[in-house]
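Please go through the protein record below and see whether the fold suits the sequence. Record follows.
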Amino acid sequence: MQKLLTKGIGHTKFKKTELGEIPEKWKMISVNEIGDVKGGKRLPKGHPFTSEKTNYPYLRVVDFKSGTIDKTNLKYISLGDYENIKQYIISSNDVYISIAGTIGLVGIIPKELDGSNLTENAAKECCKYNFNFSLVELLCNSIFLNNHQIQFSFFP
């Protein structure tokens, strides 16, 4: 996998970068060139999760597992709370990253959780282009990038 992510398939000409050698035709770009990074939102003070399942899941860092969302213990919010924080939803086209608690968990949102509210302990990468976010998630979780002290650079 590391060879595929750094050498590609069939490339014969390479260039040196801060990550090492990559194919000459590849361009390194920063995460902010792919999309916009936006944060999640805390529930308003004194507003608990609902005791019943609603149409408004609230995704927490504890739900981030294996590059996706563990739906076992999802929490839900009321319509009123959703209306107050609906600008902090996450799409199945976004990539999440935890920024508090367990830092650095990265993954994608399953289609059935598209439009869920996102905790303040996470951020999301909102893509500007038709980009394969499964690849972004894979790269973020790769040993290669985790062994380099770099702020998320990706190979298109």
Notes: DSSP finds five helices and 14 strands in the chain. The CA atoms of residues 54 and 76 lie 6 Å apart.
